[in-house]
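Anyone have tokens for Probable guanine deaminase? Sequence:
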Amino acid sequence: VTPTTGSLSTYLALPKAVLCVSHDSGIIQWIEEDVPSSLLQDVLAKHGITGEDVSLVELETGEFLIPGFIDTHTHAPQVPNIGSGQEHELLDWLAKVTFPTEAKFEDVTFARKAYTSAVRRIIDNGTTTCCYYGTLHLEGTKVLADIVHDFGQRAFVGKCNMNRHSPDYYVEPSAEESVARTRAMIAHIRSLSGSPSHALVQPVVTPRFAISCTPELLVQLGDLVAADPTLAIQTHISENAAEIVFTKSLFPPDILPTPPLHQGPKPTETTYAGVYDAYGLIRSNTILAHAVHLEDSEVKLIKERNAGISHCPTSNFNLRSGCAKVGAFLDAGIKVGLGTDVSGGFSPSILTAVQHASIASKVVALSAPEHKHTHPHAAATSIPFANRHLPIATLLYLATLGGAEVCNLEKRVGSLEVGKEFDALVVSVREDAGNPNLWGLDLDQALGRTSEVGKEELQAMLERFLFCGDDRNIRRV
Ligand code: GUN
Ligand code: FE
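Reply: yep, here.
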């Protein structure tokens, strides 16, 4: 089962497909659809493969392949905090719950232990590509990158830049020190993983959010990324109402530099996106998390810069931030993926993000009266996504190929297509996977007719898995 390049509204469900991966390169060589068992040897022979060259993995009825999940926004040091302090909104939650825990990662021994368990848990949940925030600590963040690299997960790892509006015990002493540590982190990660075009683990410049960075720091980070177009950038944007008011007060338009790509007169009002843009931090390899309360001009700017949005619905509900208008972003042609945003979000699983992305789109639809109760089966490409529920195909896309686009990895991963890296999960909805939430009439029927799992049964299995599945149903990563 795979999304396909160029369509957000359809996906491929191919029962009895044979997919061939090169053992040497890990690249998908060919895919043949509808191959009955009796013809398997013929198909292999057609591709010049004899018994000795091949190791054959056959999936059982009730098992299928999907591309690995992509988490475009999470905080590795917050995994120990999952499920605590959820009575707060963003700024209180940072001060009371998050910063005290992150400060502990100054202790490298603690960091190694906590990160090892966090990364293993994230991989077990089927996330094969992950955009990680570390803490502000250089050594701890290097340890995170080492662990991710040793596990062989594809990832972006960033050390938080934060030199103001943070507690005394958890703040960087100066812009210079923050940037020097960032440079050291970049050098360390590149020494692990090699050239950006093939690296599994890549560095990402991570100004935590505008509030925690002085203008001097943002200027220096802007210079750093301007000198290296391959450097990815990640940050938070427009998550919470109080945060937005504070951001605008810290960056009145007269203190902002004129952005390099800016045309026309200087704006008289600041927008959140306009702040980052003024420092050259919004570009095609920038990942913007949340985007709950974007103004129209910000949506336009993000599209113009071809930056990506990480939709973090679990966190947006949990911290009472709001519902991002994902349908409108998709209509605008913006790249969108999903983020767990642990521990603002209380689950490290992209499946939970899928479920909450569906609910968030339904909440948006409910509050748009003109669209209420229309398009019950909307799936056609011609129907705009704004103000309606996201179809299954779109949810699958957000969890995989959409995330790959946000990370600029769509040529390498995100779908099961010839020429891409084989980066996939074996999903099992079988009874012996041990998840009773998935057992139900249509599935039982599908599984009962052992040799007869067709496209429709496979689609039913996917929907059940997306909404009721968990890590028990992810057999192999
Ligand atoms: N904004 C700044 N830092 C954070 C964080 O750690 N989590 C979330 N959700 N938003 C933030
Ligand atoms: Fe976050």
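The chain has two domains: 2-66+416-476, 69-406.
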